[in-house]
Design goal:
heterodimer, A: mainly alpha, 8 helices, globular, B: alpha/beta, Rossmann fold, Arc Repressor Mutant, subunit A, 5-stranded parallel sheet
Amino acid sequence: MYLTRKTYIKPTMKLSGLLFENPYLMLMMQHFGLNFVVQDKSVEQVCHENNINKDVFTAIANLYNGFQEQYWVHFSRKDIPAVILFLKNSHQYYKVEKYPEIKALIDDIARINNTPEIKLIEQFFDEYFHEVIDHLEYEDEVAFPYFLELAKNGGSLQKADYSARVYRDHHTDIETKIMELKKLLLKHIPLHQDKTLRRRLIINLFELEYDLTIHYAIEEDLLIPLIDHFEKTPSRG
Amino acid sequence: MAECNIHIAIIEPSHMIYEGLSNILLKGNPHGRILRFENLDELKEYRDKNCLEVIIVNPAIIMGDPGTLGTVKKHFHKAQWVALVASVFSDTLLNLFDARIQVTDTPGSISRTIARLTEEDCICADDSPGEELSEREKQVLIELVHGLSNKEIADKLHISTHTVISHRKNISHKAGIKSLSGLTIYAITQNIVSMNDIQSGG
């Protein structure tokens, strides 16, 4: 997280002011399926108009500003679909926008800096990319549909094959690989006329890492505990 | 200290005092990061707790309930707490802190107070010591890149598996890289192996 002065977000604050302070909140709004041109509206107004629990919205927005709330107490079963929509939209962003952007930059660099190191970086990234896609697809196809069913019908379903620990291990692995890519590109592999492209690539990796860190925090600290909770206390309806 | 990238949190309701103090702190430490919090509750929810080295608090914030400071302190194992003193407070209150800054202090003396608190252990220093690999570590890395297991490396270099593992840890720590494919790229950049070695050694 790399912004020096960040505001702790409250529902009464003007959303546009917060967007000017931390432009990555635009991305967060896109993940929520919201427009980021909001004129003078406050956080709670925007949430109300779009039928999103303002506590869910501020908790996630605060993650983007570097704050992790200790207790996710205000959330209910009704909030699960909004959180899952957020996560699914993030997946789309990784798959359709961010990873192709990074891949294209690596390809461009490989054309200018035709060294064995960069070839290996290409391989390293391709392997990593496939791993990530597998994980995202598992979530989209297996975990999320199960969570949505659970939100609708209560905890009497056959439990899907997931656990918080498996999630965490996988996330750690994905994060370690981005960190290694950054280290190699920023510290070890000599530049070879690819300075501008290299900078753009590294900044892109930082941006991806920033969004993924928050993505995982939402899954591990918000969604999974919520699901565990509702699995133990089935609704009667 | 001058090169150190320290993180400082400030809880001070007066915007003027906050701005002045953060400018002084950044002058003394241009690579530092200053974060402002409104109160202890907000501070407690900050995500990168272990990165905060110094927390400067106006004691007026906790005067009504000094007990909360003790509770919040437990969340920040590495931080030093500094009272930012602008009026008269009891010693009992001020003794809850590790150091004090007076609003009348000169910029130099404020910087020195912070420097004294942070020079002992700089936790935000780069996690890799930036040392070169030893000859033995280079040998282990070459075999690793060629795909040998810990056991095979131990046999080849006539050392114990335990020693191989400890070399691997040191290599990863120094390079900042754990995965085998990452270490392979690292080994090439350091001219420890060549691309041909990898392709033929496989």
